[in-house]
């Protein structure tokens, strides 16, 4: 297993470099350093001297990838890409274009994101698994057909509808919880109830239908028929046999979404005014702050790769027949 993990980690390096280069080019194709300076200076008639000073302060006065006028290693080291993007591999995120410490912002904003994402994941998985098992238990009946119909209906509704509808019904009409906002400590719970509830409800349709499909594939296999022939109750078969053998695809789906726990939800945090990493990324995109966007893209790519590695490791935990070579 050690050799496999080492190999996967080595594969991650060129992938992360490629993602960094792609993000770098994409951002600077849309906006040149001069355009970025004009945007941040906020003056239509800003002088070229002010633009040059802004670029010099942030290191954007250097060549993008290749300094042809310099000698030796400096052709690469004295570039915007080397000084800004490659330091990310050492987790040196530097400062944003507005002068804020990105590492400090991430350490502060990750907790509100986790406060929403963790309950949504745990409650959502437990609830969807329970409903999917119940529907699969009554397969080929009216309960099954009705459950599938409701799932398809819920999947057809936009996530924005759940957010706006939940804010209007629960926050404005019933006035049970605040519509938006955030607070520190235990007082933050009242602000988290609504986004967590909406996050769970909006994912019920898709999750239940997917888990139901997995369970239905398992109930027709030989080991299930063998268990039935031994006289085991259907409920015991569903819980002890079907659920256990369906854990591999379930674990795959759960582990892959782990990066989103840290990075937060872009839409949810923006609508509910939660100061997490999702809203942080949206604000950076609006302000065209390349330093923050670059850091968040790198962090997302790294966490996604880590999630894939954890998925492979989880296979060996839920199914001893699987071995990593």
Structure description:
The chain is mostly helical. The chain has helices spanning 2-30, 33-41, 48-58, 74-77, 80-84, 102-137, 142-156, 159-173, 189-202, 204-219, 222-229, 234-245, 247-256, 258-263, 266-272, 277-287, 290-318. The chain contains 17 helices and no strands. The longest helix is centred in the middle third of the chain and has 36 residues, at 102-137.
CATH superfamily assignment of the largest domain? MetI-like
Report the mean per-residue pLDDT as an integer: 84
Any low-confidence stretches, pLDDT <50, length ≥5? none
Number of DSSP-assigned strands = 0
* Helical segment count: 17
Return the CATH topology of the largest domain: MetI-like fold
Q: What is the subunit organization of this protein?
A: single chain
The count of domains is: 2
Question: Structural class, judged by helices and strands?
Answer: mainly alpha
Q: What is the share of helical residues?
A: over 70%
Give the terminus-to-terminus CA distance.
Answer: 6 Å
Order of helices and strands: HHHHHHHHHHHHHHHHH
CATH class of the largest domain: Mainly Alpha
Label the CATH architecture of the largest domain. Orthogonal Bundle
The backbone outline, from C-alpha atoms, is globular
Largest sheet: none
Gyration radius (Cα, Å) is 25 Å
- Strand-residue fraction? under 5%
Précis, in short:
The protein is mainly α.
Q: What would the keywords be for this entry?
A:
single chain, 325 residues, mainly alpha, MetI-like fold, 2 domains, 17 helices, 73% helix
